[in-house]
Amino acid sequence: MKPFIPAILATSILAGCSQQAEQPTERSMQAVEPKIEYIKTRQSDQVDSYFDVQVPDPYRWLEDDRSEETAQWVKAQNEVTFGYLEQIPYRDEIKQRITKLWNYERVGAPFKEGDYTYFFKNDGLQNQSVLYRTDSQGHTDVFLDPNQFSADGTTSLAGLSFSKDGSKLAYSISEGGSDWRKVILIDTETKAQLEAPLVDIKFSGIAWYGNEGFYYSSYDKPDGSELSAKTDQHKLYYHKLGQAQTEDSVVFGGTDAEKHRYVGAYVTEDDRYLVVEAAVSTSGNKLYIRDLNKPDGELVTVLDHTDSDTSVLESLGDELLLVTNLNAPNKKVVKVSAAKPGVENWQDFIAETDNVLTITTGAGYLYAEYMVDAISKVIQYDYQGKQVRTVELPGVGSVGGFSAKQDDKVVYFTFGNYTMPNTIFAFTPQTGTSEVYYRPQVAFDSDAYESKQVFYHSKDGTKVPMIITFKKGTKLDGTNPTQLYGYGGFNASMTPGFSSAWAGWLDLGGVVAVANLRGGGEYGKAWHKAGTQMQKQNVFDDFIAAAEYLIDNKYTDSSHLMVRGGSNGGLLVGAVMTQRPDLMKVAIPQVGVMDMLRYHTFTAGAGWAYDYGTAEDSKAMFEYLKGYSPVHNVKAGVQYPATLVTTGDHDDRVVPAHSFKFAAELQAKQSGANPTLIRIETNAGHGAGTPTAKQIELYADMYAFALYNMGIRKL
Fold this sequence. Notes:
Blueprint: E1 47-50, E2 53-56, H1 68-85, H2 91-102, E3 106-107, E4 111-113, E5 116-122, E6 130-134, E7 140-144, E8 155-162, E9 168-175, E10 180-187, E11 198-202, E12 207-209, E13 213-218, E14 235-240, E15 249-252, E16 262-267, E17 273-279, E18 286-291, E19 300-303, E20 310-316, E21 319-324, E22 332-337, E23 347-350, E24 356-362, E25 365-372, E26 375-381, E27 387-390, E28 398-401, E29 411-416, E30 423-428, E31 433-438, E32 449-457, E33 463-471, E34 482-485, H3 500-507, E35 511-515, H4 525-529, H5 537-552, E36 561-566, H6 568-579, E37 586-590, H7 609-612, H8 619-628, E38 642-648, H9 657-669, E39 676-681, H10 692-709
Parallel strand pairs: 34-35, 34-36, 36-37, 37-38, 38-39
Antiparallel strand pairs: 1-2, 3-5, 4-5, 5-6, 6-7, 8-9, 9-10, 10-11, 12-13, 13-14, 14-15, 16-17, 17-18, 18-19, 20-21, 21-22, 22-23, 24-25, 25-26, 26-27, 28-29, 29-30, 30-31, 32-33, 33-35
């Protein structure tokens, strides 16, 4: 969940698998099933009362991530899970195939800071990408290597920000996948550390003001577990170089009147304005600015409510450009005087259209990316609001980038889709021409695969898009191993993009389908809201309808369908598999929000209430949440699909107790032979910064588990 605001061989080894799994073919012949001896999870007599309704919570004790009993439970569950996975005969072969696909050089777009040009590069299987730099003479060397941060690669680079002249760098690190960060300051010329690291920083950018200091955000360290205890009051600080962190001044958020769950800040490129955004949930923010040319300048209110997502796009001296969805659900750009920035003074600069807008700036222009049925279209504007051109893109897919400093001459963007690895293009805005800057060499024959966008109707008749990717010539006989992926929340859009992991599934002869569910941002704020709170069932209905489309159109059948999703998508999988256990053969909910009655009591979970509502809001909201909460809807005597729950023991975004309790419920109540296992990655968090080696192992395990339970006995 967002704090503020997811070489293939030409031969498809599963292609042509048209027989039913129970038929005695070579690939699906009967074999000795891996034996599972589940541990017995202790049940307590914990009962909670919601509006006089008694709700048992027998596995509440698993929420205590500091207890020895929980630690032993984790260890025992992993022994069972890995004992099962190790008996799948082709598990190592799948790992080798994914490793081959993952092992290609990846280079990021260059960016200039001070006298150097920097870029990230990963040789292929490095756990973390390395930051290089090139001097004015063309000499390139390693500047910062996160692979040296820890022996096992679990300490990652979580963010970096250069001072105005590029002479200093503040970079943050995440240890074991935690959202709690350390910030380290160095001199970029000598790489020498300038002072003691700043600690206990969470959900924060680093916003330099000149070369003297920077703004950052954090919470007071909570009482109890720092992984799961609630964090509720975010504060914005200013750190002046050379002073102790304990002396950092609170800029915003230190009083009851300024209490917000999320506070972020940035400084406009001209160093003129400090911009502060404050929010109580993951949607909607208040907005303030401070003129930094005035030594004692006060924060000026731009918006004093959270009815919109509004930010400062650009400073034009005494005027500002804002991007907003206030009374414009697909977003627009407005211009306003910084001295009188209230809504009543806003003037449309780039009007709202029928498609969702994302906008960036660089090299003296603005770049408006529009999503047209989840596909990118880019229009270039000048600073008078005049359309310059529609940027020619290399195909149908998704773009990223189009962001640069105003004095840059070239703007870089990435383009990719489900079959085309992300390629970097250099765009010259004066002429509108693009050329390939970097094209990765991947052992994957893009021409052998195709993507097809389809539209299907959900339960209430709503038309929903989905992109289905498969090898050309795939026979639609209803037996193709198919992975259906979804998210459906927090205004996040699932747009086409290349993934070595998904390429690995395609290489195994599988079909990949990604549905653009309500709750996402593909069609603007209305689409998002249609999947929130007491309309959340729309998201599950959309996903169910996607599965039914794939089955009805013979891409697969229920015995060859895997559903997968992470975080809010883990909730999606958990809800759908408990509502329609007959629909899929395999379910893989990853780092999911599974206890909808208690999610808001952990870490920053209360900030997700815009999407979910809470059990404390009203009896109706409580009953609605309880009606789909995965933990509360596992029923004895039901045959659930083969399930592999995945989480990380250091996940302090969606705490692992969600997954622990869901797995315990499934193991206690599952009817039939389908396995219900939980894979708990140790020294790992919600996903960001996970080492390459661990990612490959996870996907190999998920795919092996899925194929084996679809009846595939031989690759």
